[in-house]
Design a protein that fits this description.
4-stranded antiparallel beta sheet, alpha+beta, 8 strands
Length: 142
């Protein structure tokens, strides 16, 4: 039987040990990653979609609909009654996401917002902003 001289490579035991070590390190490191930026951005995109929907709903019904954002809250309310008595729907933000400042956005029956507005969502140390243009009601996330 011939012996291999100067044969370079890794043994199976060495490979298994390295893979096992990488697995342990990744199991410890991955849960500690901060997902605040992703959560804030995804929440802002959800609010953006809701703004577009409420604008279209106001035009379809030809009546004013208001979105109410309260500072520190984890949800926002949509009302379609001019007196604000009837809450049509309350939308909950993901866990850990709050609204930075109180804002009300009212869309007229023509789909025009009452004023330009900015909604800032906070998740941990990260923020995401939904900006609503005054005349068009176009919502953008930044």
């Amino acid at each position: 039987m011939k012996t291999l001289k100067n044969h370079k490579g890794f043994t199976l035991i060495e490979l298994v040990f390295v893979i096992l070590l990488l697995g342990i390190l990744s199991a410890v490191a991955i849960p500690s990653l901060d997902h605040s930026a992703i959560t804030a951005t995804l929440s802002a995109h959800t609010v953006q979609t809701d703004v577009k929907y409420i604008q279209e709903l106001a035009m379809t019904r030809n009546q004013s609909i208001t979105m109410e954002f309260v500072a520190g809250a984890t949800n926002y309310t949509v009302t379609d009654d001019p007196g604000g008595v009837y809450a049509a729907e309350t939308r909950k933000l993901p866990q850990g996401v709050t609204i930075q400042a109180s804002k009300n956005i009212t869309f007229t029956g023509a789909g025009e917002p009452s004023i330009a507005n900015t909604i800032i969502l906070v998740a941990g140390s990260e923020t995401a902003t939904v900006t609503i243009e005054q005349f068009t009601g176009r919502a953008t996330v930044s």
